[in-house]
Amino acid sequence: MEKVVVAMSGGVDSSVAALLVNQEGYEAIGVSMQVWDYRNHGGSLSKATCCAPSDFTDARQVAQMVGIPYYVFDFEDVFREKVINKFVSSYKEGLTPNPCVECNRKVKFKELRERAESIGASKVATGHYAQIKKSSEGYHLLRGMDDSKDQSYFLWAMTQAELSKTLFPVGAMTKAEVRERAKQFGLQTAEKPESQDICFVSGKLKNFLERMGVESSAGNVVTAGGQAVGVHEGVHSFTVGQRRGVNVGGQESPLYVIDLRPQTKEVVVGTKEELEKQHFFVSEISFCSPKSIAWLSSEQDEFECLAQLRYRHRGVPVRVTKFQNILKVFFKEDWSAVSPGQFAVFYDENNEEVLGGGRILHEREVETQISIKDFAEQGLGAL
Amino acid sequence: MRVNFDANASLKPLPEVFNCLANYNGEFLNASAVHQSGQKAKLVLDEARIAISELLSLRGGDKVVFTSGATESNNAALQIPKSFIASGQTTIACSAVEHSAVLEFLRYQARQGSKLIVIPAAKLNDKNSLSEIITDDLKLFALMAANNETGQIFDVQRIAAEVKKISPRARIHCDAVQAIGKINLNFPELGVDTLAISGHKLGALSGVGALVISEHCHLEPWLFGGAQEFGLRAGTENVLAIKTLGIACRQAKQRLELADSRMLAAKEAITSFLAELGDLAHINRFGDQQLPNTVSVRFPNLKADDLVVALDLCGVAISAGSACASGRPSPSHVLLAHGLSIEEAKETVRISVEPTISETELEFGLSILKETLVRMLERRRAA
Predict the structure, then answer these.
(1) Around Cβ A217, how many Cβ atoms within 10 Å?
(2) How many CB atoms are located within 10 Å of the residue B178 CB?
(3) Of the candidates B313, B328, B329, which has its C-beta nearest A119's C-beta?
(4) Of the candidates B365, B330, B246, which has an alpha carbon nearest to the alpha carbon of residue B6?
(5) Residue A30: exposure state from Cβ atoms within 10 A (0-12, 13-18, ≥19)
(6) Which residues, other chains included, contact A225 with Cβ-Cβ below 8 Å and sequence gap of 6+?
(7) Residue A140 pairs with which residues in a beta bridge?
(8) Nearest-CA distance B356 → chain A (Å)
(9) Helix (H) / strand (E) containing B66
(10) pLDDT tens, A157-196?
(11) Could you give the angle at which helices B15-22 and B239-276 cross, rounded to 10 degrees?
(12) pTM, rounded to two decimals
């Protein structure tokens, strides 16, 4: 029987994923990933959203109920290196990180898969709300059936090879159906509340960053012209595009954060017009659909699609062009704000299939990205 | 079929123990009660004490105190008497490869103000080298009879004599958990003051153990609230579990020679298979003598944790490092103390067979071991 490792967080989605994989006739093996030890990092165990002993207990009991073996794998070292350190350094650089993307591409679908294959499992299953379809051209990564839960945004970096060895058993279900299935089977996680926060941050983000050595020092709020118009308590509390919390009075039109300069401790504010860009650049590019992969190696210089710029974003029409070894992306209709450090994920014209994506560069990064990195280092060589 | 190649973590309860539990007639068991049920319970304790006395050739004045297990026995034996503390800083010592129940407790004592000397295992093999490390102010010395992870046997008798020669007043404790039932032990000849026993390592229930106290040694009570166990360890005795401990000790004594040849034959079969793997397997051998049932082996570039899971999925239990440390699997302090790197320690597994291992069990376990290792090493080579 084909062995499948199911990543079990102790939540309802991965519980049902384990149930379905088992019912579909695979030999399912439940695995929880120990990625962060709250006790050793000053966090509050009771507030932890994952890796808390209670979550592992839930996962273990669900596995027992489903009737599959269960193990906890230790990924603390690789998680610290690839996810936490990146998260912290992004804030230090005034960027807005997305640790879920990093975890998926560098831990879950890399390290976990490696270990799954090592123990003889050919596939990895997770409780993500996304779908994989196979056609004569190859594999297609599609949005989850449940629009409100769709997690395909976090999975853009998957390759064709990875898609061929991955199962998303709840991707074609709605959250309500998942809970219902869990209830029918008597799984104790059926009514478990959703975890919303970043899994390794218990309590306030500001406190976490301070523990990790990101100094929260006050500085000036300035305009693009360099005029000081206010003060703030720390650059890393802000994200580009943010309007709330910008305490500058006496302005005619609302002000937005348009840039972060951690070196000089400046938060730059400006009008909506100053915030919105005509285009942006992305690196760390990865393409996952047969069509987009073909485009990348073709003579064609550009294609049109929709770009989703953060998890909760509807996706806007863009024109993607090859620009030396990175991509330059133009907004087709309204200009928009972009948060450097976040990921731009491209979807097809129906806003259904993930084509690929990349990390949004800060303007100051563009030059170095072009000059020091070649295509292979960008990950493009792997395609 | 499931085979226990992780005997140093726990034996399967012996058939005799099973029978005893199956035939338990519901008698209420408080050994301190005056009535007949109480007297029967008292007899159970007496019988178990006799079984332990016979197994270890105790003298009339030596005491057997029942405990909740070897951790309690080790902790109780390593308390520092007030009389020691009154006379200034207390020097205590142990080997670097002690079980955590000893090492961590002594480290706790060190935090309370004692001076702790941790002696490298290699030093204990050199005759007369202790005088370079300890002096006549040593008050407490702990040494295991055999190591749980490497199977190394220590010459407790010689080392205890050397310690007493250097510091005649030093109290010597021996953690004999892994040695009992596998090699012959004679308590008076060992020349130690206290000795710890674990029930489940002998095929009794878990949650029961004993501390043997020499007739020459005075310990202070560690639990208060009743006169049980010579006034040292208050609390109603766990009569049923103690009964299984007595049974297991009797069985251990009866089968010692037979068990020895069984374990050795199994160990020989396992090591000769590993030898066939050439450079792909390194057997760790430390010291002059090893337990007849334990093989510590390192597979370069193979994660020990993966091998443990892969074998478990096929019905064979082994372990990587010590089972107790597996809250967060950290590399074994024992292997590190022997000079292995962290990476090497994470590539090391322990295979330990039960004294009662049958030919069928050996055959099954060995074939799964071969099959799994060949597959994993093959994959490693391909990658």
Answers:
(1) 12
(2) 27
(3) B313
(4) B365
(5) buried
(6) none
(7) A133
(8) 27
(9) strand B63-67
(10) 999 999 999 999 999 999 999 999 999 999 999 988 887 6
(11) 150
(12) 0.89
